[in-house]
Amino acid sequence: MYPQIYMRYPGGKDRALTFSYDDGVEQDIRLIEILNENGLKGTFNLSSKLFAPDGQTWPQGQIHRRMTLNQAQKVYIGSGHEIGFHGCIHGFMDSMPANRQVYEIIEDRALLEKQFGGVVRGGAYPFGTHSDQLVEALRASGVAYFRTVHSTHNFEVPQDWLRLNPCCHHDDEKFPELVDKFLETKVWARPLFFYVWGHAYEFEQFNNWDRFEEQAKKLANHDNVWYATNIELYDYIKAYEGLRLSCDGGLIENPFAISVFFWADGKDYEIKPGQCIQL
């Protein structure tokens, strides 16, 4: 009988949590402090040509305050969080001609990689707008994933990584309810995937830092939760999907350089790099 197997995250964890924030604003400084204090991880999507000039002063009451490149480098490099891209100029990429779309993708990635010293493989659609042509431009450019702004309110593992829908915005009225559901749901087969997005300036705009901090503390320090960046989740899930199974499913081979975990017939398994196991 063909065995049913279900993915587990590293260490056999049955649920994963990630965050995604856009624009590289000054409020990211406080947000990263909150994430780090609670052992949470995420991705910050930046536009390489929109950093504020050195010496920038903002008018009284300005909420959306982009960091200078120097500020951003101090905040993000070595923070443990991922850098994603958000279009060089944060334009409506879906409305651009094909050659401009490719330029926005490649140029933004290349500049961010130089600015922050790492490979940039994913990001988020400016304004959340996208099209089939833009998706194909991302695919042809070797982009791993790109996030929309469409909230699913579920914990399904993504199927279409270039139309990556989050579970909810941090200011969604259902956010606290979803946090409780994520932590309390009993998993026996398919694992959970909780994806929260937003802009950190919104915490200042709506004066609700305390609401987010309350949920961050609630989400922290759970042994069955994997706290990961967007790209860490992508790479791990792709490794699980790339496991090689024999015709009857009884033999499973791991061709990757990381251990992969799964659950089958009431038992947890770890398959190490290069290992082949018999169920």
Structural features, described:
The chain is an alpha/beta fold. 30% of the residues lie in helices and 20% in strands. The chain is built from 8 helices and 14 strands. The strands form 4 sheets. Strands 2, 3, 4, 7, 8 and 9 form a 6-stranded parallel beta sheet that branches. The model has no long low-confidence stretch (mean pLDDT 96).
H and E string: EEHEHEHEHEEHEHHEHEEEEE
Query: What value does the Rg take, in angstroms?
Result: 20 Å
> Could you give the distance between the termini?
11 Å
| Average pLDDT rating | 96
Catalogue the unreliable spans: none
Strand content: 15-25%
How large is the count of helical segments? 8
Q: Give the fraction of residues assigned to helices.
A: 25-40%
- Can you count the beta strands? 14
SSE-based structural type: alpha/beta
Morphology:
globular
Largest pleated sheet = 6 strands, parallel
